[in-house]
């Protein structure tokens, strides 16, 4: 599809933009064409935070230039692929806010065309059937000073055509033969030393069933698919840079409707986690986590369940930039981006995670009143809510200390604190059980301090949150930490570095009653505690479950 490009006002944000501008500008290889990109995941697992960067680059580049981006499932390896992953990938991309409209494809859509392309290569003398085993092929691949060898390289094309058609018909067992491109056995780029482009695999495919028993290799399928979809710019991670000559070779030697350009960018690495699909699958199948969407996982569905927002992930991807050099980003920066978003948007509520009873002894029994509390100081338009207050409250256990340490300004006998938005109270003592555990704290309130300000102007050093005991609702709260204890668990056996304390579950937490209508995925700031969201799998109106998304305190130091 072609239309005139107007490059005025398009600000380049990275080197890819510069290449695209050059290509679609006057005299460029894509002059007059609409920018067309694609995101081509293999449906053999769930997308993770590293994929978010690729999604941002593929869809974002198209957006900036007024182009379009396809979604394509590279389903050329039937043994590892499943419709479950297809559905999950689509859901994750939509959640991030990107849309492929009606441009959804599978590599398997092109199986017949790829097969015909392979026949064309054989006819041209540019491909041949090889009977070397993988071990033999490896032994004969040569080195930087020695060319590779293959006894089948000069096989007559008629013989290769016959054998390839018989491979297609299912005459041979797995591994018996391959189809190789005939390029240059002495090439300094080993990817050009007659690479395999088809192998035999009698596996059931999630879309085509048993129709095919030969499947194209990714390096052959990838340029073929791009060209069939008239992609202008094929944006890939950096490990495909050495594969680009073969990408261009396929485009040049097979009759195809377009000539895409491949451009590579650096992958995104993050510390304190792993992002290999194989390793993530091991975590799931080994029972080390509670599924692909476990909130400790770097998968997009795991991050979503933990409370990450599309805006935070898109901001994270954008701020990391696009480069040609691989780098590792602090996990703390991802948390920083989430904290920024939630600090601005999340409603403030009161929740007591480790409750102990607070009795206001001079407050009239049976009396209740309400206080108006702002929902979000950043957004006055979010309004206010009313919270119930009475004689008995819940407070955090750590907000009382019978014998205070130096610098402790919360509740202890004789000390005053402010109850958030309510009254000033003075601690008068506590009650303990037989084991010596504090089960009740007593205090007296200053009835003239409604709203939290003393009538005589005295200064109160500490403010604590609370929840009314008669109005509170119970909830389960899950506190998550890094899944691994070291920054780089990829070094060595990653399972040796699992953090056994990465999940703490708190039961019978006390929350203000306004949260009883909270919906799955909805985020809140629990005052003084952190940011939490309603778990989208296990929570229900009858049994609320909240996940801590991120702490209040920001450990990330910009420019570090």
From TrEMBL:
Task: Kindly state the positions of the motif 'KMSKS' region in this protein.
Answer: 274-278
According to the entry, every stretch annotated as the Glutamyl/glutaminyl-tRNA synthetase class Ib catalytic domain falls at 35-344
Location in the cell: Cytoplasm
Keyword ATP-binding carried by entry: yes
Q: Which InterPro entries match?
A: Gln-tRNA-synth, Gln/Glu-tRNA_Ligase, Gln_tRNA_ligase_bac, Glu/Gln-tRNA-synth, Glu/Gln-tRNA-synth_Ib_cat-dom, Glu/Gln-tRNA-synth_Ib_codon-bd, Rbsml_bL25/Gln-tRNA_synth_N, Ribosomal_bL25/Gln-tRNA_synth
Q: Name one Pfam family in it.
A: tRNA-synt_1c_C2
* Motif range ('HIGH' region): 41-51
Start and end residues of each tRNA synthetases class I (E and Q) anti-codon binding domain: 463-535
Q: Does the keyword Ligase apply?
A: yes
EC number(s) recorded for this UniProt protein: 6.1.1.18
Task: Supply the alphabetized keyword list.
Answer: Aminoacyl-tRNA synthetase, ATP-binding, Cytoplasm, Ligase, Nucleotide-binding, Protein biosynthesis
Q: Which residues form the Glutamyl/glutaminyl-tRNA synthetase class Ib anti-codon binding domain?
A: 346-446
* Record field: catalytic activity: tRNA(Gln) + L-glutamine + ATP = L-glutaminyl-tRNA(Gln) + AMP + diphosphate
Residues binding L-glutamine: 74, 218
| Residues annotated as binding ATP | 42-44, 48-54, 267-268, 275-277
Q: Which GO terms describe its molecular function?
A: ligase activity
Major localization class: cytoplasm
Q: What family classification does the UniProt entry report for this protein?
A: Belongs to the class-I aminoacyl-tRNA synthetase family.
Q: How does it assemble?
A: Monomer.
Q: In its UniProt entry, what is this protein called?
A: Glutamine--tRNA ligase
| Organism of this sequence | Neglectibacter timonensis
At the highest ranks, the source species' classification is: Bacteria, Bacillati, Bacillota, Clostridia, Eubacteriales
Name of encoding gene: glnS
């Amino acid at each position: 599809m072609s239309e005139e490009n107007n490059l005025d006002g398009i600000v380049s944000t990275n080197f890819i933009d510069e290449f695209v501008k050059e290509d679609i500008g006057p005299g460029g290889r894509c002059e007059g064409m609409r920018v067309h990109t694609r995101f081509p995941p293999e449906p053999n697992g769930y997308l993770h935070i590293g994929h978010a960067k690729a999604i941002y680059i593929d869809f974002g580049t198209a957006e900036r230039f007024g182009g379009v981006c396809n979604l394509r499932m590279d389903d050329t390896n039937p043994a590892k692929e499943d419709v479950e992953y297809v559905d999950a990938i689509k859901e994750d991309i939509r959640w991030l806010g990107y849309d492929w409209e009606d441009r959804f494809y599978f590599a398997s859509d092109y199986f017949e065309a790829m097969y015909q392309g392979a026949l064309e290569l054989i006819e041209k003398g540019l491909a041949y059937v090889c009977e070397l085993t993988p071990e033999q092929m490896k032994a004969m691949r040569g080195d930087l000073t020695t060319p590779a060898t293959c006894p089948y390289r000069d096989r007559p094309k008629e013989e290769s055509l016959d054998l390839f058609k018989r491979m297609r018909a299912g005459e041979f067992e797995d591994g018996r033969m391959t189809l190789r491109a005939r390029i240059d056995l002495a090439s300094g780029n080993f990817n050009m030393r007659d690479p395999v482009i088809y192998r035999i695999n009698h596996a059931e495919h999630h879309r085509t069933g048993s129709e095919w028993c030969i499947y194209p290799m990714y390096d052959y399928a990838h340029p073929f698919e791009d060209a069939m979809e008239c992609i202008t710019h094929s944006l890939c991670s950096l490990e495909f840079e050495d594969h680009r000559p073969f990408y261009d070779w396929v485009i040049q030697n097979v009759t195809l409707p377009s000539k895409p350009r491949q451009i590579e960018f650096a992958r995104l690495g993050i510390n304190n986690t792993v992002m290999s699909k194989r390793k993530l699958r091991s975590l799931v199948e080994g029972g080390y986590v509670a599924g692909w969407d476990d909130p400790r996982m770097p998968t997009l569905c795991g991050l979503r369940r933990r409370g990450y927002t599309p805006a935070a992930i898109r901001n994270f991807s954008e701020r990391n930039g696009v480069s040609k050099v691989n780098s590792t980003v602090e996990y703390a920066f991802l948390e920083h981006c989430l904290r920024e978003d939630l600090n601005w948007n999340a409603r403030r509520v009161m929740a007591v995670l480790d409750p102990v009873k607070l009795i206001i002894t001079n407050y009239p029994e049976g009396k209740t009143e309400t206080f108006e509390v702002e929902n979000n100081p950043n957004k006055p338009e979010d309004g206010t809510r009313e919270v119930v207050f009475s004689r008995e409250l819940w407070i955090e256990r750590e907000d009382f200390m019978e014998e205070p340490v130096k610098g402790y300004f919360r509740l202890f006998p004789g000390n005053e604190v402010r109850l958030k938005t309510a009254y000033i109270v003075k601690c008068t003592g506590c009650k303990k059980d037989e084991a010596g555990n504090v089960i009740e704290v007593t205090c007296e309130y200053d009835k003239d301090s409604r709203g939290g300000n003393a009538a005589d102007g005295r200064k109160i050093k500490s403010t604590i949150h609370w929840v009314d005991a008669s109005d509170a609702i119970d909830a389960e709260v899950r506190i998550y930490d890094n899944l691994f204890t070291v920054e780089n668990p990829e070094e060595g056996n990653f399972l040796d570095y699992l953090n056994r304390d990465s999940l703490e579950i708190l039961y019978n937490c006390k929350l203000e009653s306004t949260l009883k209508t909270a919906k799955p995925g909805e985020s809140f700031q629990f005052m003084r505690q952190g940011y939490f969201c309603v778990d989208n799998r296990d929570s229900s109106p009858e049994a609320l479950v909240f996940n801590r998304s991120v702490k209040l305190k920001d450990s990330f130091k910009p420019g570090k």
